[in-house]
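Case study: NAD(+) kinase.
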Amino acid sequence: MKPGQIKSTEQENGLVANSEKVMVVEEEEEEGNLVEFSEAMRTVSKVLRRAAQGKASAQAEAAEWKRKYEMERARNMHLQHKGAAYNAGNCNKQKEEHLELVSQRCCGENGICSHEVLRDSKEEDSCSDTKITKKASFKLQWCSSGDNDDQHKHDIVSFEKGHITTAERSSKQISLKWESPPQTVLILTKPNSTSVKLLCAEMVRWLTEKRKLNIYVEPRVRTELVTESSYYNFAQTWNDDKEFWLLHEIVDLVITLGGDGTVLWAASMFKGPVPPVVPFSLGSLGFMTPFYSERYKECLKSILQGGMSITLRHRLQCHVVREAAENENEGGPILVLNEVTIDRGISSFLTNLECYCDNSFVTCVQGDGLILSTTSGSTAYSLAAGGSMVHPQVPGILFTPICPHSLSFRPLILPEHVTLRIQVPFNSRGHAWVSFDGKDRKQLAPGDALVCSMSAWPVPTVCRVDSTSDFLHSIHDGLHWNLRKTQSFDGLRGI
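Here is what the predicted structure looks like once written out:
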């Protein structure tokens, strides 16, 4: 074959190969388009099928309601028509009761019955064949964990005509009214403050001369008052721990001059019942101190003479259980008003904590630690760790992790009746540390546990207005909650 013929043949073969490649690519593109088109058609068919099913369901539901309406309307008309024929005897009385029951249970606007009446399917002329079944009445009660602890049980709901309604709410506003005038006042102050010291001396003098009250102060404060002037020798204090723990039996009212820390100190002084606390704001933030010291005479005069609104601030009761002590509690219970914190301390390892709620496993905390907070403490450490702010009258326990090594670990709010057990597992790499309202720090070794429940002794703090107004004012004034510039009205507006 000649060279020219060979060259032309190669060109023809190249053209054929290229055309075959183009045809293959076009076929692949067509197949891809067909696949996409088929998938789109399947999606459309699914949407249409769901729409048809929804329409059919709606039509069936409408038809069922119409059928019930027609049946109930015919039944009412039948009963009303036959009501005139039964005017005597027991049969007449039973028919009238039945008609009254049906009419009471039916809506007056459209005749559709809102409660189903159980009866025979066949309507007979004899009144003995008609049967009406009434719902059973019942009551619900708070149930404590103890078998013989009936003193804390009380009705919380009532059942009437098929509706469950709460008998009373634990978060409603509470007021306190003196049945006899208070006689003894305990004044607690923030240390190392000249302004607080001057105010305390002035208040002690006024309460003694104008209100004729017995005044108790801390030993430190009494020493400061007597050093300033021998006039204050009448101020009383305690001399030993026995007198200290019996303060709740003689003190009628507690006045705190300081911030939230002073309120915490006042709460820690009473392991049982706590007298009403009047907190004056002389600190930094003051979420629990609504009263202003400049008007202390007006406030105290009103409180001592008449009734007042109070906030019952719940406390946590905590026990440290040592594994080496054969599951016995270490010391007595520790009461906290804000929070109990379990953290890793100085260890560089993640803390490892097993958490149980009423003997049910909750989770295993792996992070910097865990905060168990009251609702009063929801604006303290728990807030800084990402917990929610909760009204102090809401009974509950906040379960807030500290820097958890998990993106899905969100804080919880648990009911107040549960018992929480936080245990350091035996395979933990290090110890944990627990602190109570920022004090009394204790070490938890592997196997040790912390048991927390709600205390039966809340701290009643006096409100300046009421619990809700004081709470909202504290977060607005203390945290500047949701404070931003108002959006301007100029510019484009929606049509």
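For the exam, be able to explain this: The two ends are 84 Å apart (CA to CA).
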